[in-house]
Model the fold of this input.
Amino acid sequence: MTPDDWFEILGIAAGMVLSMRSLVHYFQLESYQFPGYFRTLKRNIRRALLPGVLLAAVSGLMTLLGMAMGNGITAKLLYMVLTVAAGFGIHRMMKDKKAKKPLHMTPRVKRLYAVAAVVFLLLSWGMAACLGAQWLWIAPLLLPVWTALAGLLAWPIEKLISEMYFRDAQRRLKERPDLIKIGITGSYGKTSVKFILGTLLSEKYQTLVTPSSFNTPMGVTKIIRTKLQPAHQVFVAEMGARHVGDIKEMCRLVHPTYGVLTSVGPQHLDTFKTIDRIKKTKYELMDAVPEEGCCFFQNDGAICTELYEGTTKEKRLCSLKPDQRADVWAENITVSPAGSSFLLCTKDSKTPCTTKLLGEHGIQNILLAATVCFHLGLTAKQIARGISKVQPVEHRLQLLPQQGGMTVIDDAFNSNPKGSAAALQVLAAFPGRRIIITPGMVELGQGEEEYNREFGRLMAKAADLAFLVGKKHTEPIVEGLREAGFPEENLHVVSNLNEATTLLHQMGRSGDVVLFENDLPDNYSEQ
Done:
């Protein structure tokens, strides 16, 4: 290796750093989890390999050109300049301007790029020293692997930084022994219940609720460190999980006095593998509740009820229908496209309530939040007043203003078997021609195809027109629709959401009701 070879080493290393943009985006979309990153690479293998292949092609051509020029310093300088330029061009080309969730240049991403620069430089130097600079063009072919290696080497740095912030948030909570701390988890419904609970509690307490879907240790840590004020009396933390132990880690941060379980079902089965593992992980919240605390469940007639019955700590149960075991339940339920009304019942009172939320699923979430509020000393009147103020959570069965005479139900945040069935039930209650636009459900493990097939069967009963997004992923839905006798002429399969909305504008008419059910993130795109 000669000193002039450093021009080629620097060129190929810089080119790889510039070309890795889409791979870093995948890594970020998968919350920097390696199993998810590699699954995304597998789903998007062509797009994942494209940056490295293009850079290798340019580098290889420049190597051949350099050999023809005698491998002098001029040739090596030209190699460096054009390889860096190619990397910049690939960076620009792979920047998806239509991304639903674009790459955010967070401090963590910047640190990943810095580590990657060092890794790629050392890798290129090692290859040049062992094989010769003429073989450097091979390195970009494994760019997805080198990106993962950079992420692995950056992990101890990120762990150290996150632990520092984590302990600071722990300290802040420890300094507030007066603060009422509530943890909410569940396979689905936890974000909705969180915001409902926040609205109801605000009738009596100064309440801090983690915003949006902040439900990871670092997300909740950030809220504690930046938003928690001395005036706050209640802190409500949503706790998400993709792996066994995730809820335990959240409880190590928050130390909740009260635990709320919204549901247990087939969500994130690609990482949990079995429902039993999901059940054990969600119950980690109840395990963390102290003896002086209380656990809250809804009577789903399934796993939540089973967990309620097995809990020996103080506990409360709510039910959509009268039940001898229930502390809170509903009667005289009336559901309409305009919202719902019901009697909020306890052993001591029956209070009329109205809500803008759609469907019985919304009432179920309200009942669970109301059960917590009764335990924390709110009156039935305060709770009813709070229920009337509850607003639909964005992208979760949200009724949008009519567009061109059409009614739009936005349930695009995510989807799961129970939630999709509830959404179809809401759609079926509307008059007029009913249309659904959906890519189906993901992250359901080995049962994903059958869950989507059943989704299609249920869809056939609730919708008149079906626009399915993604030709490959929606095949089981098509099978389910056909099994249920759905008219073939009313079924339309398109490549992306833009095509679906264009088709809707062409075929839609005044009086139609359109349900947008789920919207897959960029790492599930079939394009």
